[in-house]
C-alpha cells in the first residue's frame, strides 16, 4: 500500500505538470544539441536514463506556490537538472561507479575522460540557461550551490582519504553541501522568479534543505537495505568505498565495545572491504535496530520541513499539499 | 635579444598593472579560502605555480582601452583565470599529464579525484565572481565561452579516439573552441564592463580570438621544438597522446608519398608511440621546414589581430601598443 502511494506522488506530479516538464525536457534536449556527436550521444543516454526530475519539480512547485505565471522557471528548472547531471557524471568517475538507475554509468561506457568533459559541458550549459532566465539573484543562488556541492564532494573525498571515523556533525555538514544545497536552491530559485518575499523564499529554501537531507539519509540507508533491482545501483557501493554514513555512525554509537572494534577495523583499519564484511555490517545494523534510529532522525527532519512550509502564507493549498507529500515520499523511499 | 624583449612585455604589464593584478590575486586567494583544507592546499599550489595571467591581463587591458574606471573588471579578470585553471586541472586528468609550468600537476600529486572535484569548485567560484561583477552580458559571454571550451575538449578527445587524420579546418575548429574562445571572451568582458560600442567589443573579441589561435599554434609547435626546461612541460606530450596538431597536418601536406605513409602509420595506425618515432617526426619536421610554414600561418593571424585593433578608435595609444606587443609576444613565444 505504502509503496503505491509513494510512487503516486511523483507520478502524479509528472501528470499534473506534464506541460512544464515537457518544456523542461525540450530545453534539456535543445541544450544537448551540438555539432559534437559525443556530447549528443552521452546527453541523450542521460536523458533516456530518466530519473525522477525531483529538482526541476521543486523549482516548478516552488514558483507555483508563489503564484508565478511567467516562463523563466523552465530555464531554471532545466539548469538545476543539468547541475545535478554534471555532478553525477563527475561523482561516478570519482567513485568508479559502474551502475546508476539500472544502467551502466557514462564512465563505464565511454570512459572517464568523456564523463569528465561532458560533465563540464553540462555544467556550462546550466549557467547559459540561467543567464537566459535573466535573474541575477537566481544565478547567485545556483552558483553558490554549485560551489557548495563541489566543496562537499571534496570534503567527502578528504574524509575517505583520511580514513577516520566521521562524527554525526561532519556527516551532516557533508550531505548538506553535496545533496541538500541543490534541493534547497532548486526551491529557492522558484521563489525568486516568483518574487516571493525574502523570509518566505528562505522558508522554502529551508524546506528544500530538510527534504534533501532526508533524501540523502535514505539513500545512505538504502546502500545497506536495498537491492539493485529496486535501487538501480549496486548495494554496498558506499560500503566498499569506505564511506562513513549515518547508519554506520549510529551503529558505532549503539554497538558494544567488542562490536565497535569490529566496525572500526572494517571501516578505518582496512584498505579494502569484502562481501563477507558487508554481510557482517548488515547483521550488526539489524542487531542494533539501526533502521529505527535512522527513522527517528528522518521523522525529526520531516517535522522541520513541515514547519518550514507552515511559515509560508500561500493560499495555493494544492501545491502545498504536493510539497507535503514530497516530504513523506522522501521519508519512506525504497528506491 | 628577442627573448629578452619578449619577456619584457609580460613583465612590463605585470609592473604597469601591478595594482590591478594584486587585486586580482587577492580576489583569487580569497575565493580559495575555504573550510575544506584540500581546496585551500591545491588552490595555493596552483596560485604559487604562477603562470603569466594572460587572460586577466587581457580583461584589464581591454577595459582600459575603453577607458573603464570602475572595479568590476577585477572580478571578471579573476573569473577568467579560474575558468582557465579549472580547465587545466581537468585537461591534465584527461591527458594524464604529469608536468605543467615546471611543476608536477595536481593530478600527479593529489590524484585524479581531487583534481576533478577542485576543478569543479574553481569553475563554480568563477561564476560566483562573475555574479559579483553584476553584468549579465559578461555572464552570457563567459558561460558561452566555458561551454565552448568544454565542447572543444570533447571534440579533441573524439578526434584522438577516432584515430583519424585531422584536416586543417578540423584543427582550427578545435583550437578556436578550446583555447581562442577564452582569450576572446577575456577581451570582450573588459569591453562590456567599459560599455564599449558593440562593433568595437566585437573587434576586441576577434583580436583575442586571433591572439589565442597564435598562442595555441605556438604551443603545439613547442611540443616538438622546445624542451621542458623552457616550456615547463614535457616535450612530445601531444605526440605521445596521438594529437594531430598543425605541425603534423602541415608536415603531412608537404611530405613525399613515402614519408606520408610513415607519418600516417605513426599517428593513425599505432596505439602507442615511441621516443624513436618522436625523433623521426622531429627530423621530418626539420626536413620539410615546417617551422617556416607555421610561421606563415602565424604571421597571417598576427596581421588579422592587428587589423582588429586598427578598427578600434580608442585614443589610449599606450594600451593599444601593449595589445600590439602581445601579438608579437604570442607570435614568437618560446615558452
C-alpha-based Rg of chain A, rounded: 20 Å
CATH class of chain A: Mainly Alpha
Find the structural class of chain A using helix and strand composition.
mainly alpha
Number of separate strands of chain A: 2
Q: Spell out the helices and strands of chain A N to C.
A: HHHHHEEHHHHHHHHHHHH
Count interface residues per chain for the largest interface: A-B, 40 and 40 residues
Nearest-integer average pLDDT of chain A: 91
Oligomer: homodimer
Low-confidence stretches of chain A: 1-6
Question: Would you mind describing this structure in some detail?
Answer:
Two copies of one chain form a homodimer. Chain A is mainly alpha-helical and 335 residues long. Chain A has 17 helices and two strands. The first copy, chain A, has helices at 2-16, 18-30, 37-48, 54-65, 72-94, 106-110, 112-133, 136-162, 168-193, 198-225, 228-231, 237-241, 246-254, 257-269, 275-287, 290-310, 317-331, and strands at residues 99-100, 103-104. A two-stranded antiparallel sheet of chain A has the order 1-2. In chain A, helix 2 (18-30) packs across helix 5, helix 10 runs antiparallel to helix 16 and helix 10 packs parallel to helix 17.
Supply database-style keywords:
335 residues; homodimer; 79% helix; two-stranded antiparallel sheet
Short description:
2 copies of one chain form a homodimer. The first copy, chain A, contains 17 helices and 2 strands. In chain A, strand 1 (99-100) and strand 2 form a beta hairpin.
Amino acid at each position: 500500500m505504502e509503496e503505491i502511494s509513494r510512487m503516486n506522488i511523483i507520478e502524479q506530479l509528472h501528470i499534473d505538470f506534464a506541460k512544464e516538464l515537457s518544456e523542461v525536457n525540450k530545453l534539456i534536449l535543445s541544450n544537448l544539441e551540438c555539432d559534437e556527436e559525443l556530447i549528443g550521444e552521452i546527453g541523450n543516454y542521460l536523458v533516456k536514463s530518466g530519473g525522477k526530475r525531483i529538482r526541476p519539480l521543486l523549482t516548478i512547485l516552488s514558483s507555483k506556490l508563489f503564484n508565478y505565471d511567467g516562463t523563466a522557471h523552465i530555464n531554471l528548472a532545466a539548469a538545476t537538472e543539468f547541475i545535478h547531471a554534471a555532478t553525477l557524471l563527475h561523482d561516478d568517475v570519482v567513485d568508479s561507479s559502474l551502475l546508476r538507475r539500472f544502467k551502466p554509468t557514462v564512465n563505464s561506457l565511454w570512459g572517464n575522460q568523456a564523463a569528465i568533459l561532458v560533465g563540464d559541458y553540462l555544467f556550462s550549459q546550466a549557467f547559459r540557461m540561467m543567464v537566459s532566465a535573466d535573474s541575477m539573484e537566481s544565478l547567485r543562488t545556483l552558483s553558490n550551490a554549485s560551489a557548495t556541492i563541489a566543496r562537499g564532494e571534496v570534503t567527502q573525498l578528504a574524509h575517505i582519504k583520511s580514513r577516520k571515523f566521521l562524527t554525526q556533525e561532519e556527516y551532516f555538514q557533508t550531505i548538506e553541501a553535496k545533496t541538500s544545497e541543490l534541493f534547497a536552491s532548486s526551491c529557492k530559485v522558484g521563489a525568486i522568479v516568483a518574487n516571493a518575499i525574502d523570509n518566505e523564499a528562505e522558508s522554502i529554501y529551508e524546506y528544500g534543505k530538510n527534504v534533501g537531507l532526508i533524501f540523502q539519509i535514505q539513500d545512505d540507508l538504502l546502500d545497506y537495505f536495498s537491492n539493485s533491482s529496486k535501487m538501480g545501483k549496486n548495494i554496498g557501493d558506499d560500503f566498499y568505498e569506505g564511506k562513513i554514513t549515518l547508519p554506520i555512525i549510529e551503529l558505532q554509537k549503539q554497538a558494544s565495545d567488542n562490536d565497535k572494534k569490529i566496525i572500526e577495523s572494517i571501516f578505518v583499519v582496512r584498505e579494502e572491504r569484502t562481501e563477507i564484511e558487508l554481510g557482517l555490517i548488515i547483521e550488526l545494523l539489524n542487531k542494533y535496530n539501526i533502521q529505527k534510529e535512522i527513522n527517528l532522525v528522518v521523522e525529526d527532519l520531516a517535522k522541520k520541513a513541515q514547519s518550514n512550509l507552515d511559515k509560508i502564507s500561500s493560499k495555493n493549498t494544492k501545491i502545498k499539499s504536493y510539497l507535503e507529500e514530497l516530504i513523506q515520499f522522501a521519508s519512506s523511499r525504497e528506491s
